[in-house]
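Incident log, structure service

09:12 report received: a user says their structure output differs between two submissions of the same chain.
09:20 pulled the input from the user's history:
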Amino acid sequence: MPFTSLSLGLTLTIPTNGTKNWGTTLKNTTWTKISQHAHTGGGDGNTIPTSGLTDYAVTTIKLAKNYGYTEAAALTPAGTTETIDFNNGNVQNLDVGSASGDVTLTLSNPAQGSIYWIWITQGATARNIIWPGSVKWPQGQEPILSVLTGQVDLVKLYYTGTEYRGTWELDFS
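09:34 re-ran on a clean worker, output below:
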């Protein structure tokens, strides 16, 4: 059995050793139950008050950013801009085949110390990515993306709290 259930007035599901993708189960089962419990010890099931969700408190967003890689829904810009919201996952898929020109990216909701992966897929017309100034590249050289239809490139970003430090790997086709 890949999960162990504990019942101490509140049933929690805890993954066992060797379980794959345990972060999603932990978030969707255990965290849901914890977040709906007032932590009074009485198991009354009351929701944690908003005042309890301050800095250094556990929240679903903080939990999601720390339990491993979460993949967001694919992004397909129709114009020339796209926002990547890291609250949706630290693995992003950006298909620029539908873009009408080079794509200017906005990066939002990073967490200090987090690593983000952005998979970029080219369409029939090659598109460049215009990166925010907060992204720093080795020797100041941003990636020169692949240009053929269906070619896939990977950009990895580490967020320091003030800037992103990026690396890239090209042509996974």
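09:41 both user submissions now match this output. Likely a transient worker issue. Closing.
09:42 reviewer note: The longest strand covers residues 152-159. The mean pLDDT is 79.
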